[in-house]
Amino acid sequence: MRLLTVNVVEKLIPGPKETGLTAIDKRPQVGRVRVGELGLAGDRVCDTKNHGGPDLAVYAYAQEDADWWAAQLGREIPTGLFGENLRTEGVDITGALLGEVWRIGDEVEVMVRAPRIPCITFAHRMQEPRWVKRFHQAGRPGAYLKVLRTGTIGACDRVEVLSRPGHEVTIGHMFGAQDPAKMQRMLDSGIDLMVELRETAQRVVARG
To answer: Percent of the chain at pLDDT above 90?
Structure first.
């Protein structure tokens, strides 16, 4: 399991009219990139209401999922097109558990925090019909990561799973079919959850 590329914003570009500029245009970096608690050095966040902050500091997407999309759409999905900071190889991001901890390279440690929720800026970027709905239906959202230990990372760094919590809610489960029993076990596990995800899990359990 490894990083293929580490990406930061190339330049701010126009998004949908109502959103203004966006930092979704990420490009691979040469050499090592410093990772702080709020993300990668040289990166930017424009929509701070819905993106960024410690819980959404770094966005990772798997090459295997990008390849799947390339086949579906009949076009290349170059690294950074989805706005991801990390393009990985051999990492089951959709199957990663909320609260799972990875080490990247020799220094950086991150926690899997949440699936990516597609928005109108993403749809504008892709210029594909019904993109938000299709992205939801595909169930390959990638994962936002919280930085637990800072340091530097670079292309070809190893990704190692250090720990997995004692529940069954993966990035894919949280993004798609939200099973009440699994949600309850996650809540009972006592892991640190983002407020929004905890509230979602509680609603699913209440309905179930």
So the answer is: 84
- What is the C-alpha to C-alpha distance for residues 175 and 163, in angstroms, rounded to an integer? 21
CA 152 to chain centre: 19
Structure tokens at 27: 């490009």
H/E run at residue 187: helix 180-189
**Taking all residues of the chain, what is their mean pLDDT, rounded to a whole number?**
94
151-153 and 33-36: which strand pairing? antiparallel
d(CA 49, CA 12): 17
pLDDT for 51 equals 76
Separation in Å, CA 61 to CA 52, 83, 102, 120, 121: 16, 9, 14, 19, 17
- Report yes or no: 34 and 152 within 8 Å, Cβ to Cβ: yes
pLDDT value, residue 148:
98
Residues 31, 83: contact at Cβ < 8 Å?
no
Confidence label for 208 from pLDDT (cuts 50, 70 and 90): confident
Predicted local confidence at residue 111, as pLDDT: 98
List the CATH code of the domain at 2-174: 2.40.33.20
C-alpha of 180 from chain center: 23
Contacts of 38 (CB under 8 A, 6+ apart): 52, 53, 54, 57, 147
